[in-house]
Amino acid sequence: MPDQPTSNIILPHRRLKLDTLVRLRWLAVGGQSAALLVVHVGLGYPMPAGLAFAMVALSAWLNIFLKIRWPSAMRLSERAAMLQLAYDILQMSGLLFLTGGLGNPFAFLLMAPVMVSATGLSARYTFILGILATICASLLAVFHLPLPWPVGSDFSLPVVYSVGIWIALVSTLGFMAIYAFRVAEEARQLADALAATELVLAREQHLNALDGLATAAAHELGTPLATIYLAAKELADEFEADDPRAEDLDLIHSQAERCRGILRQLTSLSSETDRTYQRMPVSQLLEDVIDPHRGTGVAIHSDWTGTGPEPVGTRNAAIRYGLGNLVENAVDFAASRVDVTANWDAGALSISIKDDGPGFSVDILGKIGDPYVSVRGKSLQRDTGGGLGLGIFIAKTLLERTGAKLSLENVAPPETGAHIRVSWPRSVYEQDGGVDETPFSAHNGKEPQNVHTSPDASSGAQVET
């Protein structure tokens, strides 16, 4: 299983359900029928009622056919959904042609199918439907039957006013379509990113579950292995010293003893009393995070120092993966060097990651951490071709769930590079939790005080690769 399973996860647009479009079309059929009845029967205005009701009936028959032909829960392809919405635009345009064109106050309903497309389909199909609606509106501004009006009087709009309605309709169509698409797209991106985060946590939880399986295996295999060990020992007493079979029994006896030792080790690793396995100091955490990125052509320097005893926290998959993702990003964009340092005092722990690359683009520095924000200056040494998109969002989400606070900035001139600092209140980092847990914990919102390396620091290390 790859170490970075979500670096390129981009989920497709959610497909519209057939039942959603059918229900919306039934709503349109009901509204159109009511409007035609009020105008033709209630007000008594003359109009081609037969053709108008025939077009409404066509939509009703289409709904009936779709309900019979396909199940309501079926997810439509984008092309199929676009074709249905295109029919709705054409059907509405036909009704407007029979009832006054853009002079009809219901002309703005031409936007409805485009809005549905903007919230559920890709930009390509939304653009196609927008062009279709614009073409229909343009034709209706010129070609249409008279607006239904009392007998003996004709209603006609001035040309300038008709042009104004067309401009207003097209402008509103473009604005609303873009707005609805952007809102829906951001919601989709956030949902996709959260889904990717859940995949990361599920992977780590799966690895953690292997520990429980090892315990169960050790328990189940203990009894038959003890029987083999005892039987081999008793059989060894029945053979003479020079019997050739005694050597085989000694081999069985030794291998059974070896298996018992392995099972004891598995049991001890899974034991709640084994604090060595369940907890790790900050220095070991840094080595675990840095080690996969050695040998990439970038020198990685690590240093840990502080006042007081070294912080020791629970092995936490969210912390390891989040920090690893940040280090990987620094290595990708660094020119030649990445510095990973840990500083602590009695109240806080801070881990700093610096690189000598181009740093963050100024125009997106305030947006870093949002899903799919992936703009960063290109390295002068090599073209990385990506970075700071979904991965940085996942890392930020995972680390903040453990109580950490992230700050991202560029290194002060004349030097170049990015600087990421992850800080925890020491009490939060050292709290006793289960192995690889990712608890929700709110950060107190206070920045830890700067910790400077001093000659009397309790611990310190310098590693260069």
Automatic annotation (TrEMBL):
Residues 450-465 have a biased composition (Polar residues). Residues 216-428 form the Histidine kinase domain. SMART domains: HATPase_c, HisKA. Residues 431-465 are annotated as: Disordered. It is found in: Cell membrane. The keyword Membrane applies. The chain crosses the membrane at residues 24-43, 49-68, 128-147, 159-181. It is a multi-pass membrane protein. Its EC number is 2.7.13.3. It comes from the Bacteria. It holds the Pfam family HATPase_c. One of its GO terms (molecular function) is kinase activity. It catalyses: ATP + protein L-histidine = ADP + protein N-phospho-L-histidine. Keywords: ATP-binding, Cell membrane, Kinase, Membrane, Nucleotide-binding, Phosphoprotein, Transferase, Transmembrane, Transmembrane helix. This is histidine kinase. It comes from Roseibium sediminicola. The lineage of its organism: Bacteria, Pseudomonadati, Pseudomonadota, Alphaproteobacteria, Hyphomicrobiales.
